[in-house]
Amino acid sequence: MTTPEAWQAGEAEGLAVDGLRWLTGVARETSGAGLAWPTKPSDDELDPTLYGGTAGVVPVLLEAWRHFGDDTYADTALRAARGLADSVDAIDDDSLYVGRTGIALALRAVHEQLGDTAAGAAADRALDLVRSHFDGTRWGELFELIGGNAGIGLGAFLAGDADLAVLALEPYLRTAEQTPAGVQWAYRPGVDARLHHVSHGTLGIVLALARVGAGTGRTDLVELALAGAADVVARDEAGPEGFLVPHSTPQYRPGTAARISYGWCHGPAGDAHVFRLLRDVTADPVWATLADRCWHSITHSGLPRRLHPGFWDNNGRCCGTAGVLALAGDRIAELRDPYDFAGTLVSDLAARAIRDTAGARWSNHEHRATPPDLEPRTGWAMGNAGIVRELLRYARLPQGGNPTYAFTWPDQPPIHTGTTDTRRECTLTSRFPP
Fold this sequence. Notes:
- This protein is mainly alpha-helical.
- It is 48% helix and 5% strand.
- It contains 15 helices and 8 strands.
- The strands form 4 sheets. A two-stranded antiparallel ribbon has the order 1-2. It has a two-stranded antiparallel sheet with strand order 3-4. A two-stranded antiparallel sheet has the order 5-6.
- β3 and β4 (183-184) form a beta hairpin.
- α11 packs antiparallel against α12.
- The longest helix is centred in the N-terminal third of the chain and has 22 residues, at 4-25.
- The model is unreliable at 419-434 (pLDDT under 50).
């Protein structure tokens, strides 16, 4: 008998196939038989980045290749790597999500999984350029995960350059600001607000410090990560069952940024991944409890319903439904959570998809714009690449398929079921109660 979960997994897989068809259909040829993607099909310029463009498309191509065993996806990933190699010298940014480090990470994945030595050489060249632009403290204005040191350190570590990773993260030791509960960092010069979550705030820095510190045996970096996490935990407004921390203190860009969010970027969907990582690094059960509290807040928030204008208008991985589905899948794999809420998320993605002969894609919604339905995007953050990746993983879970990904996203720790290698070279215990 087919279970409801298995039936829905088949629906998710079919939707993912349609999403891949649209995604590959809007690719553009580059010199040397390469491929590249714009952020939106109507854009004239190509986007090589992990956040919105080609580097973020490569992981889902590798995912599709492993999931279906279809070499067409591998061939497309190889052509995308050629396009990325051409962008290494052209892009004017060194960061993980919008710059050269993210490109290097995608190229390294193609080298390791498909044996493309040219992609590996391009990844090395990219990281060498990143290293050459370091001023001794930072690479630019941003000083966090998306565009600054934390992302560069994390990406370099995952791309195999531990020395660059440590170089990028050591400045946090001398720039940390003491708070009553721990430490925090400035988001960028001239901004009084201190951001708290993964994309631009303290927890993104914590994630990088903990992962690189544990992987290189640098206990000082892990200790600093715990101090940063302690500051954020002290700001919780939803305990003891839930976990919700404001976007920033004082509120950054009031009227534009929501004070409370629920997605990966500024809410508990991202916070939980940091707590999962600290769980594995420290072996302290307090972090598992905090991750559970994040999940409680998510599942009691009302999402994915649009409860009011501006609430839950995004389908993507960064600040929308696919990002929550990523956490739901991790919990199914690690904790054997029921499929109910994950199934609701998949059904919502199916209901909001635009499907026709070109395939499937998603329009995010901006209630302040006219018209409010935005043009579908291609990449990881807001578009097909991030959504399809989660649909494919979900499709495998009810059948007992591989719960891991072909490409482990930098900000999403590998699942830990008691046998998974989580690189726990450094074990520390946190010093504050749940």
